[in-house]
Amino acid sequence: MRTLVKKIIPKSVFQAIEPYGHLGEAVALNAMHGFPSKGLKVIGVTGTNGKTSTCFIIHRMLHEAGYKVGLMTTVSYGVGMDIKPQKQHMTSVSVPILMERMKEMRAQGVEWLVLETTSHALAQHRVWGVPYSIAVMTNMSHEHLDYHGTFERYVKAKAMLFAQTNRNHKGLQIGIVNADDATADDFAREIKHPIRYGIDHGDVRATNVQLSSSGVQYDAVLNNKTYHIKCRLPGSFNVYNSLAAVCVGSALGLTEEEVERGIAALEGVEGRMTRVDEGQDFSVIVDYAHTPDSFEKLFKDIKPVVKGKLIVLFGSAGRRDEAKRAVQGRLAGKYADEVVITEEDDRDIDGQEILNQIAAGAEKAGKERDKDLFLVHDRSEAIAFALKRAKAGDTVMLLGKGHEKDILRPGPRAAELRHLQQDDHNPERVVEFPWDEIETAHQALRDLEYGSK
Questions:
Q1: Residue 134: CB atoms within 10 Å
Q2: Torsions phi, psi of 368, nearest 5?
Q3: CA–CA dist 74, 53 (Å, integer)
Q4: Closest to 396 in 3D by CA, of 345, 360, 453, 440
Q5: Computed from CA positions of residues 249, 254, 256, 258, in that sequence, does the dihedral angle turn out positive or negative?
């Protein structure tokens, strides 16, 4: 029905009425399932980047502190240490799946749920009825403008999480806000009890920050308690992600030792700065970074510690914000020694056109095709190509797909039907293929005979 409606009405009209359809579905399904989230206490995490890692850190911290805690993110979902891979190609799942999983978690005695919450889910009212007790904002940068239209509307959609949390008078009405982000006030004003965190600003600040390839360390003082944090996720962005978790722990009354031990217990998150090792003499890292902001932060962190060349491979999704493609290319061209541009969920869009849009940005940064800028559309071939170019001491970064278990490619009638609105469920236009970035990298290294050395 939804696909039929999209075909027969203008896109602008569909976007205006779509949220009310989801709202009706959410209300109806909540009623049918007996409001499955009733009794749950939910921590919602939103933002452009860092949502998944922040969710994992908070979840592990609460688990180590003895809480019966559930998790739903882009990567995985489950209870306690029984975490399963997330197969849906979206962050916030459909209303029926959300209802089903919350019902299962409540049956297992879950008290707290850490729920990654997107702007789409909020704008479309797919999380209506979810009893958020704590809201967390990681950061905001330009993303999903293909859907929201403007950055202001994007921020407003994200801030709906804080407004919904504030309306839950049975919850804590606490909002944890990145004070170093320019949009901090847009979130803080929506919540009764804001807690601001950051490095340069905030109620709690990270000091004595130390970055290494194995993680981050810093000190933080909140409510007259001093925390000595060791997080095993590398990158300056994980100072922010773990600091948000410190605020959650403090809000729930965890001791300094419980917060410190819980954060240190998390070894990694699939597809987030994941190292691939087959005995090669260079580094291979898989990460989900796919926005200009995440590129900038990641490259600034990684470039100073790379001994040899930095080789970066990435693409940009079809039917998504086109304006970011040249920016991604420019940033990669600025920081990387070599850039390999490849597919990343083309959907029904011409992949070569996407590659050329990215390449234009890299060329403005000084890169030259077939010298230090390479366009290899097939992602498997591109990964093999990038790894083959690496020498001892180099670092190869495979960006954009991370944990995802599928890749979306044009169907047989993609070109013919491209003028229509997006529809990932029509196999004539979009075909879903199995994908595993980490395993693909492992296999490419084995093909280069590193695994046998």
A1: 27
A2: -125, 130
A3: 10
A4: 440
A5: negative
For residue 163, what pLDDT is reported? 95
C-alpha span between 248 and 38 (Å, rounded): 21
Q: Regarding beta strands 283-287 and 193-198, do their DSSP bridges make them parallel or antiparallel, or are they unpaired?
A: unpaired
CB within 8 Å of 251: residues ≥ 6 apart: 134, 172, 174, 176, 195
Q: What is the DSSP letter of 272?
A: B
For the chain, give every residue range classified as CATH 3.90.190.20: 274-447
Nearest to 129, CA basis, from 66, 265, 37, 217: 37
Q: Which H or E element spans position 156?
A: helix 151-167
Residue 22, helix vs strand vs coil: helix
The tokens of 281 are what? 């003499």
162: tokens are 């804080």
Domain 2-265: give its CATH code: 3.40.1190.10
Single-letter amino acid code for the residue at 388: K
Q: 435 is written with which tokens? A: 């994908």
List CB contacts of 237: < 8 A, sequence separation 6 or more.
49, 50, 53, 294, 297, 298, 301
pLDDT at site 187? 96
Residue range(s) in the chain whose domain bears CATH number 3.40.1190.10:
2-265
Say how many C-beta atoms besides its own lie within 10 A of residue 194's C-beta.
21
CATH of 274-447, one of 3.90.190.20, 3.30.450.30, 3.40.640.10, 2.40.128.20: 3.90.190.20
Mean pLDDT split into 10-residue runs, the chain, 453 residues: 47 48 58 69 93 95 97 90 75 72 89 90 82 95 60 88 94 97 95 96 95 90 93 92 97 96 94 92 93 90 90 94 92 97 95 96 96 98 97 96 92 90 89 95 93 57
